[in-house]
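Closing statement on the adenosine monophosphate sub-project.
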Amino acid sequence: MDTTVRLYSTLTRRREDFHPLEPGSARIYSCGPTVYRYAHVGNLRTYLFADLLCRVLEYLGHQVTQVMNITDVGHLTDDQFDRGEDKMLLSARLENKSAEEIAEFYTRAFMDDAAKVNIRPAQHYPRATEYVPRMQELVGQLIDRGHAYEVDGTVYYDIASFPGYGKLSRNSTEQLLAGARGEPDPRKRQPGDFTLWKAAAGKRLQVWDSPWGPGFPGWHIECSAMSTALLGERFDIHTGGSDNVFPHHEAEIAQSEGVFGHPVVGYWLHGEHLLLSGSRMAKSAGNFFRVTELEEQGYDPLAFRYLALQARYRTKLNFSLEGLAGADRALRQLRARVAEWREGEDGPRGDFEARFRAAIADDLDLPTAMALVSEVTRSSLAPGARAALLLDWDRVLGLDLGRGAEAAEPAELPPGAAELLDRRASARAARDYAASDRLRDELAALDVRVIDTREGQRWEPIR
Ligand code: AMP
Ligand code: ZN
């Protein structure tokens, strides 16, 4: 069955039929993390959107190659206005470690967190520090082509040299500049010019020699260098969060098209933000959760994935623990049902498969796909057919629906543990936390881990 995928392009502001450069394949570049701190579930929503895109394209028969960069140099604290301190060095200073140690630690943490919500690994994770020679090559070509100029060892992109500047964000240059706060850099020809290569200016860590003297790359040139190095000078899809549209992706277009002289990216896709109490979840604002924190509170990390599937990727989504608790319950129940039904008789599946494919092909309409999941659970299809449909769709949904057996048949408590659990529940009700902690340790000695949730304590065997 051939299903045409439609995707919303930020560049044209329209839903377009997806025509990959090579029929049946899809080459995707996803803006990845700056590895100077933990990712929060807001960041994960953006990577989850990219994961869903890959899974949907694969489900519909495409061969997918995904590249996700790891930014480990050059991302300044004020990236909107091309100023501030390098985020990597800031963390290195605060944590009293080297930039390499910081990068190593937070890259691993990112991979672990992504795995917890079933984000499948990309095929390539290029690290910016490994592509500095290629970045210098592109910067040199931009200077040769009249798109960039050097002042005191720093190279700037001359936005006036690229008539298409602003086409992605639809910001006119005047509007872009009106947004610039504070003193403009006097070395720039125009305040909106952005940095491609920055002179070291006394900085000693994360500095490379270059034709313009010692320095380090700007954040935007990194993505032009890594995307085209691994995917070639034309590829299909570029993803990111909505805040990446400007300046990051606007700059990437000016750089890549400035070098190659033609469009590089077929479709630009952007995911909307996760909000907490109405504001964007952000580390700097202090309003965020890490996925491990949700797990410590007793929620299945995939409950977050379930929650994210309830909204289209281009709409803002409000996060709340109440919403998460509801998703957690619904997910456990769904798994238990699948475990029961998969033992049952198979039978005809009606038009569910065609409707599921139509939903996901329609710019990843996962809320409609999840409504179909509910419809299947309430349908009169044979139990085996219901289970088969849901397990097949789980290749896209990624909710581990086949895991339910354990929820349906809970492990047995070791002798004596039930009484300890009862005593602990009473201790907590009486707010006697010293006793409750002691009982937690006693239970751990019996290989029982206790997890406190809003609905009370749960337990699981310690393997
Ligand atoms: P950052 O660490 O701020 O560079 O963000 C990494 C990625 O997460 C970027 O692609 C951002 O667009 C995205 N992002 C940041 N905050 C949020 C949020 N609250 N919701 C969704 N995505 C976000
Ligand atoms: Zn990027």
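The pocket of adenosine monophosphate (ligand 1) is lined by residues 31, 33-34, 42-43, 45-46, 240-241, 243-244, 273-274, 280-282 (CB under 6 Å). With this model delivered, the sub-project is considered complete and its resources will be redirected to Aim 3.
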